[in-house]
UniProtKB/TrEMBL annotation:
This is GDP-mannose pyrophosphorylase A. Residues 3-195 form the Nucleotidyl transferase domain. It comes from Neovison vison. CDD domains: M1P_guanylylT_A_like_N (cd06428). The gene is GMPPA. Residues 283-355 form the Mannose-1-phosphate guanyltransferase C-terminal domain. GO terms for molecular function: transferase activity. InterPro entries: GMPPB_C (IPR056729), Hexapep_transf_CS (IPR018357), Mannose-1P_guanyltransferase (IPR050486), NTP_transferase_dom (IPR005835), Nucleotide-diphossugar_trans (IPR029044). It comes from the Eukaryota.
Length: 402
């Protein structure tokens, strides 16, 4: 028996994803046509022996989240529950706080996945690796170039045994080109080190607060408090993957993740990809079109386009490398490139909306997406264009840059 835990964070996180996260919890933002965390849930549901999926976070259980969970339970025929933290507890605090729920039924092991990653989720391969060599912590790792590795948790492994000998979160100098993907497989024994951190936090807090009610005791950072402390002690191992992987920290990285997932659909969900049909729009590359969208036959779509529910795409529209969200309208002869068109927005006829992508270096197979903030040194950095909810660009010939 197996379980999975998806860490979805809370509204105090994901600030680089604004303004899109103002309208919907970031984990529900559609990437390649489905909510971001549906990709995680689909991967977990395919693992043999999966009995339950738990979401842990600090979001209020609003209507959108409740509706998504109900639909996901029906679609995947699995119990999928949301466990709300009373305060933000870090990447490991929620696991310890809800340990009884996670261990109920006696699972052999449980997956832990961060919601803001895009991956092909090689969970079955991780499970095979774990069963061949059981240890409390198994981390999914991939390679990055030397410069970008500084932005991630870095792993030094024993190349023969794959034991993690050293772990540093976002080091100031180069440590290793193997980085932490934020996808794990833990044994029930993995909760013991979390308990030790909690008890140590309690003791430290009592020294500062004689009441013993210090609220920070429950905050546990998996990376710094557990992985760094236990590396080299025979408890943490790494499973390396060369599959797709990216973080989704900013709106630009959501567009890049959409491109990766649309490419994956060729193998995993070919039914989600639009086909070129006589009398239909011209499809170039991988394109997702929601069944309720209305697309004019003279439109040219792709590559790497996702069109949401109730969208209207007018005659002569050119659309590529973009996400068009629920209820948006692209009027006749608009050109939309490297853009996220917000919910209910309108792009007027003959308008041109073009962003500047910040894609990984295509000549470096180990390059990853940089998830920088929109501003640096007081200046707006080049980025994709985001049209917020119910906005419009209607002036003929308008050229909007992000």
């Amino acid at each position: 028996m197996l379980k999975a835990v998806i860490l979805i964070g809370g509204p105090q996180k994901g600030t680089r994803f604004r303004p899109l996260s103002f309208e919907v919890p970031k984990p529900l933002f559609p990437v390649a046509g489905v909510p971001m965390i549906q990709h995680h849930i689909e991967a977990c549901a395919q693992v043999p022996g999966m009995q339950e999926i738990l979401l842990i976070g600090f979001y209020q259980p609003d209507e959108a989240l409740t509706r998504f969970l109900e639909a996901a339970q029906q679609e995947f025929n699995l119990p999928i529950r949301y466990l709300q933290e009373f305060v933000p507890l870090g990447t490991g605090g929620g696991l310890y706080h809800f340990r009884d729920q996670i261990l109920a039924g006696g699972p052999e092991a449980f997956f832990v996945l961060n919601a803001d990653v895009c991956s092909d989720f090689p969970l079955t391969a991780m499970l095979d690796s774990y069963r061949h060599q059981p240890h409390p912590f198994l981390l999914l790792g991939t390679t990055a170039n030397r410069t970008q590795s500084l932005n991630y948790g870095c792993i030094v492994e024993n190349p023969q045994t794959h034991e993690v000998l050293h772990y540093v979160e976002k080091p100031s100098t180069f440590v290793s080109d193997i980085i932490n993907c934020g996808i794990y497989l833990f044994s029930p024994e993995a909760l013991k080190p979390l308990r030790d951190v909690f008890q140590r936090n309690q003791q430290d807090g009592q020294l500062e607060d004689s009441s013993g009610l210090w609220p920070g005791a429950g905050t546990i950072r998996l990376e710094q408090d557990v992985f760094s402390a236990l590396a080299g002690q025979g408890q943490i191992y790494v499973h390396l993957t060369d599959g797709i992987w990216s973080q989704i920290k900013s709106a630009g990285s959501a567009l890049y993740a959409s491109r990766l997932y649309l490419g994956q659909y060729q193998l995993t969900h070919p039914e989600r990809l639009a086909k070129h049909t006589p009398g239909g729009p011209r499809i170039r590359g991988n394109v997702y079109i929601h069944p309720t969208a209305k697309v004019a036959p003279s439109a040219v779509l792709g590559p790497n386009v996702s069109i949401g529910e109730g969208v209207t795409v007018g005659e002569g529209v050119r659309l590529r490398e973009s996400i068009v969200l629920h209820g948006a309208t692209l009027q006749e002869h608009t050109c939309v490139l490297h853009t996220i068109v917000g919910w209910g927005s309108t792009v007027g006829r003959w308008a041109r909306v073009e962003g500047t992508p910040n894609d990984p270096n295509p000549n470096d197979p180990r390059a990853h997406m940089d998830s920088e903030s929109l501003f640096k040194d007081g200046k707006l950095l080049p980025a994709i264009t985001i049209l917020g909810m119910a906005s419009s660009g209607t002036r003929a010939g308008e050229n909007l840059h992000g």
